[in-house]
Fold this sequence. Notes:
Blueprint: E1 5-8, E2 17-22, E3 28-31, E4 36-37, E5 39-42, E6 46-49, E7 56-57, H1 63-80, E8 93-100, E9 106-115, E10 118-127, E11 135-140, E12 145-148, E13 163-167, E14 172-176
The chain binds zinc ion.
Amino acid sequence: MNSESKFLIVETDPEDIMWLLVTGAPPRAYCKKHTVPLEIAYDIFEVTFCPVDKKEFSFTNEYSIQQRLVEHLGNREALSKLKFVRLDSEGSRVIARESVDLLEEWWIEAKASDTSSGVQLMVQIGKRNESGKKVQLFVDTPRQRLGFDFSDKDTHPAGKLAEVVVTFKDSVTIIKAKDN
Ligand SMILES: [Zn+2]
């Protein structure tokens, strides 16, 4: 089979309903019990029923609207699995990327970008299995400057690290936790 298909269950639907999602076709409601597509009859009102036992199902919306809703849900699910690619408007280009997986407790990721003002290095350090703040360092090589983010997601380097030493061409910058 070329196209992808799967069943989706919508919380707000009546029980025993599942939707078959096939790429390139509108979703179809199925009776879960008999695994058959529901049939729709139009009297004064729209009636959706299982062709096997004639059980009627009433959706919160008209069938065609529900169909579109389910299609959106399916797309949203598929989209959530896609990776984000960030494009920098300043035109900086990532030239190197490295992540350290050797440490059991910590993760470290580094990214070097070629920006209009020269090569910039970003280093992120965080503790595994911890939703707490990470440290985000910026090494600005042309200006020989060490910076960091301080936000609700990022902590001051001294909050996590004993010492950060960056050696530039002509200078050394150190961030060190204060001795108490
Ligand atoms: Zn049925």
